[in-house]
Fold each of these.
Amino acid sequence: MTGRRLEGRTAIVTGSTKGIGLAIARAYVSEGARVVINSRDADDCVRVAQTLGESAAPVAADLSRSDEVRRLAREGQSALGGRVDILVNNAGQPRVAPSEELAEADYRYTLDLNLTGYFVLSQEIARGMLARTSGAIINISSMNGSVPFPHRLAYCVSKAGLNMMTKVMAIEWAARGVRVNAIAPGYVETEFVKTLSQKGILDLDKLARRTPMGRIGTPEEIAEAAVFLASPGASFITGEVLTIDGGWSSYGYL
């Protein structure tokens, strides 16, 4: 779709120098929004912001640390003129290990980045949204929030928690003008997934066959949903977890 559905809006998109986050940032800029680009790597943030032009501003931060999350909130709001209309919580990583071998440090890191960081940033940004009685928060969850995979205990727990956090924030803030939704992608053809395929960790052909639509998704397909949920077209949608997995979680046969 084309158009300027986010004309004049401002957004922070975390984890937006690659993959799904980058696709969302690009789509937001193309739809008329000004966007803060974020990752842990300052050089990557600057590089991506430069490719997107004057509508993008870089703010690097490690979102596994609450002090860094709060700094992102401050600097992001400042870069956007003091107002954030849209927050996309996207930054995240898995730690893959058998549950009996999963290090406590890896478990805690995964929840700090994938869940606590989302809570702290949402809380910081929502205060301004609630004061203006307007705003949209979109959490990038995963089909693993409801479909368990082995060796991904911390990741699955973080995404299940994120789904519930989305719903609780949504019902608390709905009457005050702030919508909170989540997108739960299945397998998406990101650089990370391609790298795992090249290393022989993932079989993309097998994943495509397991998916009823016969392929895995693209970052741009997730971005399109993120544009819609941030736009006036989704004005009566809150508390939803939109699964985008090509039918994977609906199909029970292995």
Note: The mean pLDDT is 96.
Amino acid sequence: MLDDAGFGSAARWYADGFAQRSGIKVNINLPPKLDRLHKDVEIALFRALQEGLTNVHRHSGASAVDICVRVDTEQVHLEINDNGRGIPKKQLAQLADGNGATSVGIAGMRERVRELRGSFEIKSDRTGTRVILAMPLLQRGSAGSARDEKSTRTVSPA
């Protein structure tokens, strides 16, 4: 789906399935007319979304997660924000340093973003965790079927 329809459609599809499988409410906010992005950027965004939601499900104890994608003139931004228990300070410091031994997924996200000259950050406290990344747009592809009818959706578990 990512190759054919682009990140916007693939993100909505994945969020719908995640909500159904996990029982976690998903709010997804995408630009109403999200054009196709460079293939490498779309792949990095989708893999970050997958890993971020996997971590929410496995570790956070969250009942809800917000996903927000913004595009400005130079970058695409992805934020994944859950309402879970947060990451302990010591573990968060290890993740920030890139020393989290059990964080293969986070290391993969960080590396993909770094390869595209982007930024990656994790913020966490007792009210939840926020993963924030931004990547240069590179060159845009053609507009595709990522243009959907609604820019914001809430996905509730079935």
Note: Strands lie at 25-29, 64-71, 75-82, 119-125, 128-136, 152-155.
